[in-house]
Amino acid sequence: MLRLPDFKFRRPKTVREAAGILADEGPRAMLVAGGTDLWPKMKRRQMEPRVVVGLRHLAEMRGLNGLTIGANMTLRELERHTMLIERYPAVAEAAHSISSPPLKTMGTIGGNLCVDTRCFYYDQTYEWRESIHFCLKKDGDTCWVAPGSSRCWAVSSTDLAPVMLALNARIHLLSKDGDRAIAASEMYNNDGISYLAKRPNEIVTAIELPPANGDITAFQKLRRRGSIDFPILNVAVWLRPAKDGKTIEAARIAIGGITSAPFLSIPAANALIGRELSVDTIHAAAHAARLDSRPLDNTDLDFSWRRSMVEVWVRRTLEGLKSSCRPTRG
To answer: pLDDT tens digits for 136-163?
Structure first.
């Protein structure tokens, strides 16, 4: 049985107190809300904080206030929230796709947006990793995916991040030095170790959604099973229909689960803008997304097959939105 290592648990009364603890403890400290990612990785000694700062009890980070989602809102709450289902279905769909019902009652949106990258050589027990002399991401000096590389190629495994990129949401961060907000597209680095652009002493406190204004969204996920599994690929789409209800005024297509960071496929979006959402337009956008994708060869299934699935899944996601392109705004 894998057991947690020794650590000190801190339970701050406010998020600002939590930020102060994080600043004072430095690299020794890590944050936990639902713990669905941190606790298993501590058991496998992938993460070894000496101090764990609990956030789950902080009411100021819970709930949905207008268009601002508290980072402690659980995945279960997201998938069931009426406003999200009606106006931002991609958010509810992505939350619904994550893990299993028991874990969705624990996992939070803040945790999923910051979830660790994964890789065949990293997601193993301590003894397994020790047998290969560890890897660049933890305890070693070699990336076994690309031994000649100076960077880590672990893959992003968040499902909600592509949705936030597609929506152009803003991420609110708090540290001992103050508050700031960044676009979701600025949150992620294409690096398996330094995969978050947020500073180590910052806490994700909230996610601010833009007004819907008649925009339409969708999310789809490819994985081995219908639940529990991490994404092999995920796709999030945001479309703004023109007032005539026939053409696309603006578009964003985000792709995740294939590289170290989710990304916006600009060529795929450009293939839609100013055009009707016809069969030919959808195929052009899906093909552009495939050409724009470079899946890494260190997670589930063959990377070349996963690249071909980018085209299939973008096409399916857009096909599901054809009937939604109407002149209504509100």
So the answer is: 999 999 999 999 999 999 999 999 999 9
Q: Residues 317-330: pLDDT tens digits?
A: 999 998 776 544 43
Looking at the domain covering 1-54, what would its CATH class be? Answer: alpha beta
Q: What share of the chain is helix, strand, coil (3-state, %, to 5)?
A: 35, 20, 45
What does the pLDDT read at residue 303?
87
Domain boundaries, the chain: 1-54, 61-114+155-208, 216-324
Is the pTM value of this prediction over 0.90?
Answer: yes
Given a contact cutoff of 8 angstroms between Cβ atoms, the answer to whether 165 and 236 are in contact is yes
User: Quick one: how far is CA 180 from the chain centroid?
Assistant: 20
Helix (H) or strand (E) holding 234: strand 233-241
216-324 and 1-54 share a CATH fold: no
Question: Is the CATH number 3.30.465.10 carried by domain 61-114+155-208?
Answer: yes
